[in-house]
C-alpha cells in the first residue's frame, strides 16, 4: 500500500511576502493570484507566519459604520495591534504552523484541524519553504475512482498484506464507501482487515459483515449484522 504524501498534492509555486510588505500590497496579491493567504518569510526563506484575508478584514472591522458607530472593545491588546498594523510583521498570524513533504495526507489534515488553519506552508529539513498545502489539496484524495480503491483493497490489502484467497472477501465500493462481506479464517483478522481498508487513499468509510471460521479472540460470539445502505 502506497499513500499519497503532502509532496504529492502541495502547490510548489508559492506567492510569498516579507515582514516589511505593506498592507495594501497583500490586497493586490490576493486578487491578482486568486489566493486567500500568503506565507511571510525571513531572509533565508523560512516561514515566520501567515497573512490571510481574515487579517485584512480585521482592519475593516474597526472602522465606523455609516451611522458613525464604532465597534466594541477588543478582547485583548494583541487583536487591536494586529488590526492597526501596516505591514506583514504586525498583521501575520505567528508562529507559522508548517508541514513536511513526507507527511501523509491524514497527518496534514490532523495538523490543520488541531491548529484550526486552512493551509500549511511546507518546509524542508532546514525549515525553508518548498510549497504550501491547503484543505482543497487534501480533498483531492476523495476524487479517486471507486474502481481504483477496490483494486487496491483486493490486491494490496487482502492479497499482498493479509495473504487471503481472493474469493474469501467480497469488496464493493460505492462513492468511496467500502462494504466487505465473506468469511475469514480467524475472528481476530476482522478488525485488522477493516482498519487496513480504512487506510486506503480515497476511502470515506468501511462497513463489514464478515464472518469467521475460528474464534481466536476469546470474546463472546456476536455475529455482525449485515450492512444495508440507505435508500
TrEMBL record:
Q: Which CDD domains match?
A: CBS_pair_BON_assoc
User: Keyword annotations for this protein?
Assistant: CBS domain
Residue intervals of the CBS domain: 10-68, 92-149
Q: Where are the transmembrane segments?
A: none
Task: Check the record and name the InterPro entries matching this protein.
Answer: BON_dom, CBS_dom, CBS_dom_sf, Diverse_CBS-Domain, UCP036990_CBS_BON
UniProt-listed Pfam families: BON (PF04972), CBS (PF00571)
> What PROSITE patterns does the entry give?
BON, CBS
Domain BON, which positions?
Answer: 145-214
Question: This chain belongs to which protein, by name?
Answer: CBS domain-containing protein
Provide the organism lineage as a comma list: Bacteria, Bacillati, Actinomycetota, Actinomycetes, Kitasatosporales
Amino acid at each position: 500500500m502506497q499513500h499519497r504524501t503532502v509532496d504529492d498534492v502541495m502547490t510548489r509555486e508559492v506567492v510569498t511576502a516579507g515582514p516589511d510588505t505593506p498592507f495594501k500590497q497583500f490586497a493586490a496579491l490576493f486578487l491578482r493570484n486568486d489566493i486567500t493567504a500568503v506565507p511571510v518569510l525571513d531572509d533565508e526563506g523560512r516561514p515566520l507566519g501567515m497573512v490571510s484575508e481574515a487579517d485584512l478584514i480585521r482592519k475593516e472591522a474597526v472602522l465606523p459604520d455609516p451611522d458613525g458607530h464604532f465597534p466594541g472593545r477588543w478582547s485583548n491588546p494583541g487583536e487591536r495591534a494586529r488590526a492597526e498594523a501596516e505591514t506583514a510583521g504586525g498583521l501575520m498570524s505567528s508562529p507559522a504552523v508548517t508541514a513536511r513533504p513526507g507527511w501523509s495526507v491524514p497527518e496534514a489534515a490532523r495538523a490543520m484541524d488541531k491548529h484550526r488553519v486552512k493551509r500549511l506552508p511546507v518546509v524542508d529539513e532546514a525549515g525553508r519553504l518548498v510549497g504550501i498545502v491547503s484543505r482543497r489539496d487534501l480533498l483531492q484524495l476523495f476524487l479517486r475512482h471507486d474502481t481504483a480503491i477496490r483494486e487496491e483493497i483486493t490486491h494490496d490489502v487482502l492479497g499482498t498484506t493479509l495473504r487471503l484467497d481472493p474469493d474469501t472477501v467480497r469488496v464493493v465500493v460505492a462513492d468511496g464507501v467500502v462494504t466487505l462481506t465473506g468469511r475469514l479464517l480467524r475472528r481476530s483478522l476482522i478488525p485488522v482487515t477493516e482498519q487496513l481498508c480504512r487506510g486506503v487513499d480515497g476511502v470515506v468509510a468501511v462497513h463489514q459483515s464478515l464472518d469467521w471460521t475460528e474464534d481466536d479472540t476469546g470474546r463472546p460470539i456476536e455475529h455482525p449484522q449485515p450492512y444495508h445502505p440507505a435508500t
